[in-house]
Amino acid sequence: MKKTLFIASGVLLLLAFLAGALYFKSEQANQAELLAGQNREGMLREHAPQLGPTAAKVRIVEFLDPACGTCRQFYPLVKAMLNANPDKIHLTLRYTPFHENADQVVALLYAADQQGKHWEVLEALLAAQDDWVKHHVAQPGRVWPHLEGIGLDLAKLRTDMQAPAIRQQIEQDLADAQQLNVSKTPEFFVNGKPMPSFGEEQLRGLVDTALASEYR
Amino acid sequence: MPLNFAQPAHPSGWTLVFLAWLLASVATLGALFLGEVMGYTPCVLCWYQRIAMFPLVLILAAGLFPYDPRVTRYALPLALVGWALALFHWGVASGLIPEQIAPCSKGVPCAVEQVVWFGFLTLPMLSVAAFSGIIALLLLTHYKASQ
């Protein structure tokens, strides 16, 4: 009897927890979709780096922190989806430097964008992330050796990344993220829809659904 | 064996420890819900209170099967430490203890209330209540066993 009571209480508590978690997550996803619908322009700023054809009907907006390890893990997946559907998917990157000092690295990426080398630099930085992110703190000084061989004008880059315009872009990025309730990276919106829960499978599912409904 | 709920005026020692376990479980799952599901980052003081609360779920369960009233001896120190931390946290959060003495200034500040329910119910308050309940139940268990 006592054992039954104990086990029943334990199971009941866990079920309540799971039900609450499922409910909360679905509410959160609904809320995020609503917010994304209300803030179309907050998702797509002119300064945001873009990849893929503008006519593509599946539009991914990714909020990314170059110092975030999970963002690095997701990057090949996103890239593979773009490569597999070269004229159907378009990617917009929004930078949310949540890690300490990561904003300076984002400034460097924006400056590299002015030289037309944004994606090359981003890929080099993600590949070398372990070297310039220590204990979740970005160390912008350690970034430079990884920029060799990309063909950047490094002196110009150093000057450009200090520009107030770039600072404003980053502030805009962070303000938009806050508006959209993006507090963790990476966060994806596929045609305005957020992932139902976090995971590679969920992102793939979201993109596959969008592909199926836009290109039937 | 009849259910002890039949005579609420004299709950057995087992029921008291069971209720304490229930309280610890609810508090633990609640903390996990806030942290893992709702995504609130626990402040330093919250972490210390979690360290005191989470093991109570296991220790109290171990004292239930077979029932051992001496579980009080092993559970009470944790509950008391957690209670003291919760009280301190409550003081910091409500401004009774000035912020300079608060051990957490970086990361998530302990002095900021992230959650306020019904206009007054805060997390340190709930924590104080949960630890107080567990302590009371454990003391009653001890008292019953020594009779």
Keywords:
heterodimer; A: 216 residues; alpha+beta; five-stranded mixed β-sheet; 56% helix; 12% strand; globular; B: 147 residues; mainly alpha; Bromodomain-like; 4 helices
SSE arrangement:
The complex is a heterodimer of chains A (216) and B (147).
Chain A: H1 2-38, H2 40-43, E1 50-51, E2 58-64, H3 69-84, E3 89-95, H4 102-114, H5 118-127, H6 129-132, E4 133-134, E5 137-138, H7 154-160, H8 164-179, E6 187-190, E7 193-194, H9 200-214
Parallel strand pairs in A: 2-3
Antiparallel strand pairs in A: 1-3, 2-6, 4-5, 6-7
Helix pairs in contact in A: 4-5
Chain B: H1 13-37, H2 44-62, H3 71-94, E1 116-117, E2 121-122, H4 123-146
Antiparallel strand pairs in B: 1-2
A few lines on this structure:
The complex is a heterodimer of chains A (216) and B (147). Chain A has 216 residues and is an alpha+beta fold.
Characterise the protein shown here.
The complex is a heterodimer of chains A (216) and B (147). Chain A has nine helices and seven strands. Chain A is an alpha+beta fold and 216 residues long. Chain A has a single domain, classed as Glutaredoxin (3-Layer(aba) Sandwich), CATH 3.40.30.10. In chain A, strand 4 (133-134) and strand 5 (137-138) form a beta hairpin. Chain B is an all-alpha fold. Chain B has a single domain (12-146), classed as Bromodomain-like (Up-down Bundle), CATH 1.20.1550. Chain B has a two-stranded antiparallel ribbon with strand order 1-2. In chain B, a hairpin with a 3-residue loop joins strand 1 (116-117) and strand 2. Chain B starts with 12 loop residues before the first helix and ends with a helix. The chains are: A alpha+beta (216), B mainly alpha (147). The interface between A and B is medium-sized, with 17 and 19 residues.
